[in-house]
Design goal:
The protein is mostly helical. About 75% of the residues lie in helices and about 0% in strands. It has nine helices and no strands.
Length: about 210
Amino acid sequence: MISIIRPITPNISPIRNGDMGFIIAWLIVLAFAGLSAFFVANYSANRFKTNPKKTAVYFISISVLLTMMMLCFFGLTATTFKGIILSLVFTLSSFEDIRIRECDDFLHVLILVAGFIGIGMSSLVTMVFSAVFVFAIMIGTAVIAKGEIGGADIKFSAACAFLLGIEKGLFGLMLGLTMAIVINLFRNKRNRKEGFPMIPYLAVGFMTAYFI
């Protein structure tokens, strides 16, 4: 599996190139990601009555770290800017699921809209097929799990599959579900019937798939 992970491209490193304009561009993108994360964090703190400083640190740290990784992997491209949007939506979705075990529908719509960035309309049929296929898998999994997987988890997974495509979508889904099952087997070993937020695990799985 490691062999299919996209490596960091040396020639897009601004430090390696010594290009001051390139360095400034990177800093601007990182500042944009951090500032966007700050506003999203402020919205989250006000809505869920959490500590504003801790929430801001949580959102900004994740956003800046992922943005730096995407700049290294993809450079100053549409893929990076789409990834920034995706990382913010993933962070907010995870935060919301942890706090209230729900995820607003507008977040799923944002993922769908982000899916159109940097792609041609010829990819639309494949994207729709990916979403429908993953949706069907999640419905089947929800039936087997007897309600442990909610509607928000299903819609979130389908939207991510729409953006990522069939291969990356399935990889992200399987990774997220596997992490959720394994981690919570240990966390809830005293009470196996206790539920847990699924979206944070799915978000990690799908974000990992984005780098493939």
